[in-house]
Amino acid sequence: MASGKSLHLRRPEINRIMKINRIMKRSFTVTVALLGMIILGSFAQAQEPNARAQLERFSEGLQSLHARFDQRVIGSDGSVQDGSSGEVWLQRPGLFRWEYGGEFPEQVIADGKNIWIYDEVLEQVTVKNQTEAAVNSPLTLLTDLGQLDSQFEVREVGQADELQLIELRSRSAESEFERILLGMTNDILQMMVMEDAFGLRTEIRFDQVKRNPELDPLLFTFDPPESADVIGEIQR
C-alpha cells in the first residue's frame, strides 16, 4: 500500500462533503454497473416483449463493449442529488473502466485483482479486492446467467417508458440493494436502476453502444499517481 500527500481543501467544505458522498454512491454502483455492461448490447434480430428472454440474448457472444452513459442519483424525497455522465469499457472476463467527467472527474477500473476508484479532485485512490467486491453481488451473473434464479428473485414487472422491465431482488440478506430494475428494448439494455434500503435510487441510461470492439489492454491498468493518497490494500 502506498500513501502520498495529505489532503488539502481547495473548494468550499460543502462541495467536499458532497464529493465524498459521490464516492460512496459510485462504489455502490460499481458491481451493478459491471453487470449491466457485460450483458449490454447483444443485437439479435428477433424481437419479443419478454424481458427475461431479451436479457438472456443480451449476454450471448458478448466479449467486449464500449458505451456512453448518463447517471442520476435520486433521493427518497424524489430530488436529484447527483448527476453525471461518462464512458465505460468492458472486456470479459472481469475487466472494466468506468470514467465520470464533469466537475468531479473520477475513474473506476477493474484490473482482474483490484478495483481502483480514483478521485482526481481529492487526489485520492481507494482500492478494493475485486474478488471480495464480487461476493453477494450481481457480479456472479457475469460469467453465468444460469445463476440468475439462484442469486435473485426474478420477475417481469411490465412496461414503462417503452421499456420492458425485469426486477431482480437478491436472495442474500447482505446485499447492498433492495432491488435492481433492468429496462430492455429490442434486445438492448437501455436503463438500469438500483435502489437501496434507504430509498436512494441510482439510475443509469446507456447510449452509443459498441459491441465487441477491440480494446487497448492499457484501459484496464492503473498506477496511482505519486501525489495521491491510497486507501486500501493492493492485491499483487
Name the average pLDDT: 76
Q: Give the ordered list of helices and strands.
A: HHEEEEEEHHEEEEEE
Number of alpha- plus pi-helical segments: 4
Share in helix:
10-25%
Radius of gyration: 18 Å
- Give the tally of structural domains: 1
| Order of neighbouring strands in the sheet with most strands | 7-8-9-10-11-1-2-3-4-5-6-12
Give the terminus-to-terminus CA distance. Answer: 10 Å
Q: Give me the CATH architecture, please.
A: Clam
The biggest sheet, with number of strands, parallel, antiparallel or mixed sense and barrel status, is:
12 strands, mixed
Characterize the structure shown.
With 236 residues, the chain is an alpha+beta fold. The protein has one domain (13-231): outer membrane lipoprotein receptor (LolB), chain A (Clam), CATH 2.50.20. Helices cover 19% and strands 39% of the residues. The protein is built from four helices and twelve strands; from the N terminus they run ααββββββααββββββ. Strands 7-8-9-10-11-1-2-3-4-5-6-12 form a twelve-stranded mixed beta sheet. The longest helix has 26 residues, at 13-38. The radius of gyration is 18 Å and the shape is globular. The model is unreliable at 1-21, 36-48 and 135-140 (pLDDT under 50).
